[in-house]
Amino acid sequence: MGDPRHQYITPPDVYFNRRTFIRAGLVAATTAGTALAYRRLNGVDLQAVDGAPIPGIVKPTGPGYIAHGEQLTPLESIANYNNFYEFTTNKDGVAAAAAGFNTDGWTVEVGGLCAKPRTFDMDMLVRLSSPEERIYRMRCVEGWSMVIPWVGYSLSKLLAAVEPTSAARYVAFETLLDPSRMPNQSNDSVLDWPYLEGLRIDEAMHPLTILATGIYGQKMPPQDGAPIRLVVPWKYGFKGIKSIVKITLVDKEPPTTWNRSAPDEYGFYANVNPNHDHPRWSQATERRIGESDRRPTLMFNGYADQVASLYAGMDLDAQF
Ligand SMILES: Nc1nc2c(c(=O)[nH]1)N[C@H]1C(S)=C(S)[C@@H](COP(=O)(O)O)O[C@H]1N2
Ligand SMILES: [Mo]
User: Fold this and answer.
1) What is d(CA 68, CA 272) in angstroms, rounded to the nearest whole number?
2) Higher pLDDT residue, 1 or 196?
């Protein structure tokens, strides 16, 4: 707790009284590709979201792929209340700080313990598999949640393409390191850059684990992790590393940014678990963006039927 960087995660009760929130959910969802006027809500400038529509989105119905019965969080809320510390630690300010983020010529280097390491450009990544709509709950470790219609496909498709060897037991992910494009990376008191994440290989191969290149049927806005980010719906949001440039198959549990920053607060697994409180707040409930009452947090964020078997025999509270 002596690490001054802990201040960057705001305890839930503080930020929920802040301006954007209460009304954010009242803003109507916009349709994909619609140009929005630049709007102000409760004094906050809302960035318009006007990404190019993604063609050919399919809607497979695998278990957990669509959060049935959940109301979608409006696009404006998803795109104006963000955690993306490379730009700013102010959630309301990420959209403006990331506007114009240049992803031209983006590549993702996929290598390590595999037979066919390769560097993919975005065209190759987009063509690798049909874009799928996945409507997932997202639960941030800070105690808020959203329901987000992602566009992407299972990470397993990409991993299969590079043919992991039997020695590959984990997958390590890395965000772009470029302070000229991600200005808060000039500030090394925020986090150690680049942002790092990791999964066990079976977690990475699970069909619910996706690489997302869009939301609401359109290309990913910069603030949500353009051009490509990870989404692991049964884990806390910080596992969903944004703006990925490198994916490496490795044999040992890789270092992860939040675990290194505060090992007693953020574990490697970070499975959503209402029974394991954060040292500084309860994880039993959450605030769904746009709702006023807190709701119970679900074990594995409601994906227990799909993923609990991955952790058979593990002490889930020890593996926080
Ligand atoms: N590179 C990078 N990835 C990141 C973060 C970050 O600061 N940097 N924040 C994480 C956290 S804490 C959350 S809750 C989600 C937020 O995603 P969203 O802004 O698209 O809702 O992104 C995660 N991925
Ligand atoms: Mo988060």
Assistant:
1) 19
2) 196
Nearest ligand 1 atom to the CA of 258 is 12
Quick one: fold of 4-311? Sulfite Oxidase; Chain A, domain 2 (3.90.420)
Nearest CA to ligand 1 atom 10: 238
Task: For 146-209, give the DSSP string.
Answer: EEEEEEEEEHHHHHHHH-B-TT--EEEEEE---TTTSGGGG-TTT-PSSPEEEEEHHHHHSTT-
Task: Tell me the per-residue pLDDT of 170-191, one tens digit each, with 9 for 90 and over.
Answer: 999 999 999 999 999 999 899 9
The full set of domain ranges for the chain reads: 4-311
Cα 166 to middle of ligand 1, angstroms: 31
- Measured from the Cβ of residue 124, the count of other Cβ atoms closer than 10 Å reads 14
Place of tokens 């990420």: 94
User: Rounded to the nearest whole angstrom, what is the distance from the C-alpha of residue 255 to the centroid of ligand 2?
Assistant: 18
In whole angstroms, give the CA distance from residue 298 to residue 285: 8
E strand map for the chain:
39-41, 44-46, 107-112, 118-121, 132-139, 144-154, 170-175, 196-200, 210-215, 218-219, 229-231, 244-250, 285-288, 295-296
CB-CB contact of 86 with 225 (8 Å):
no
Q: Looking only at Cα atoms, what is the longest distance across the chain?
A: 54
CA distance 125 to 154: 12
